[in-house]
Amino acid sequence: MKTKLLLIILDGVPYANWRRLFGNLEGWVAQGQAQVWKMRATLPSTSASCYATIHTGTPPQVHGTWGNEAVKRLPQPDIFSQTRAAGGITGAVAHSFWSEFFNRAPFDPVRDLEYDEPESTSINHGRFHTMYGYNLINQTTPADNDLFATLTMLTERFGLHYGMLHTCTLDSMGHRFGHDCHEMDDACYRLDYQLAPWIDRWRRSGYEVIVTADHGQSMRGHHGGAGADQQDFALYYFGPATGPSRDVLLDQLALAPTILSRLGADIPATMQAKPFLVP
Questions:
Q1: In this structure, which of 97, 204, 270, 272 has its CB flanked by the most CB atoms within 10 Å?
Q2: Which residues are 207's β-sheet partners?
Q3: Which fold has domain 4-263?
Q4: Interval 88-103 mean pLDDT
Q5: How far apart are CA 48 and CA 54, in angstroms?
Q6: What's the chain's Rg over C-alpha atoms?
Q7: Exposure on the CB side of residue 146, measured as CA atoms within 13 A
């Protein structure tokens, strides 16, 4: 393939918190080693709806995921399937919804928590978690550092061309505390410093890296509706391509075709937005 790329999704972080609390990411931007833009999520700005849009490049009104209760195997072409069709190796470390969307549904934890399927036409190497028992008091989220290490293991063991990672820690914290509080300041700080050495390692291994969210979140800890606080988040890109000026608002529909263009895979007709990164 033309390049290797990792997509890192930190669930539920509003744009303002990215820019004021992620000092390592902002430091790379200040040093000219990363680019950053604001991106706007689809509507509804619900997690599952956004997950499906991120990888299919289609809105919920096309892929039919109206909310977290509507998770199913999606029929549209997606980043994983297009990468596989181009001969690439794929991997994912994420919530079980991603496996159901892009591999098989319903999710069977015995079968699907961990799998290595070289002949798969979608996700070759999956490491998933369910967050079973989640509520506002009991977050049931894995340690972020363990997730970063797991993705790194997949890249180094299997030579992934495309890998994605998704963590719900900050989304869960936001639902519990809201975003304008000491707890979220500390949580964002801790995730930023945990992520930084892994970005350095991935870049040294030849990967382009995108760090972003699926949606924003209001100061009261809500998302799903319209409005900049619920929809807008930052997207950081580490790599040689160039994008639009920093004041351009990116559309979430453009993320899938952009990733495929970087990988050198075909962009299907169902993905109608134009890539925002150019060589």
A1: 97
A2: 4
A3: Alkaline Phosphatase, subunit A (3.40.720)
A4: 98
A5: 10
A6: 17
A7: 8
Torsion angle, alpha carbons of 74, 78, 83, 87, to 10: 50
With beta carbons less than 8 A apart as the criterion, state whether 222 and 21 touch: no
Mean pLDDT, rounded, of the chain: 97
10 Å CB burial of residue 130 (0-12, 13-18, 19+) is: middle
- Residues 71-85 pLDDT 10s: 999 999 999 999 999
For residue 37, how far is the Cα from the chain centroid? 15
The overall pTM is greater than 0.85: yes
> What is d(CA 241, CA 276) in angstroms, rounded to the nearest whole number?
10
Q: Is the pLDDT of residue 138 over 90?
A: no
Q: At what angle do helices 169-177 and 182-204 cross, to 10 degrees?
A: 170
Cα atoms in the Cβ-side hemisphere of radius 13 Å centred on 232: 15
Q: Is the pLDDT of residue 228 over 90?
A: yes
Helix, strand, or coil (residue 206): coil
Q: DSSP letters along 79-143, please?
A: HHHHHHHTT--EEEEEEHHHHHHHT-SS--HHHHSEEE-TT-SS-SEEEEE--TT--SS---PPP
Which SS3 state, helix, strand or coil, does residue 32 take? coil
Please, which contacts does 46-49 make with residues 24 or more away whose CB atoms are closer than 8 Å? Answer: 46/215, 46/223, 46/224, 47/11, 47/12, 47/97, 47/168, 47/171, 47/214, 47/215, 47/223, 48/97, 48/101
What's the confidence (pLDDT) of residue 50?
A: 98
Q: Cα(29)–Cα(18) distance, rounded to whole angstroms?
A: 12
Summarize the confidence of residues 107-134 as an average pLDDT: 96
Beta strands in 176-231 (DSSP E): 207-212
Helix axes 182-204, 144-158, angle to 10 degrees: 10
Cα angle 267, 50, 153 (rounded to 5 degrees) comes to 75
Distance between CA atoms of 90 and 120, rounded to whole angstroms? 9
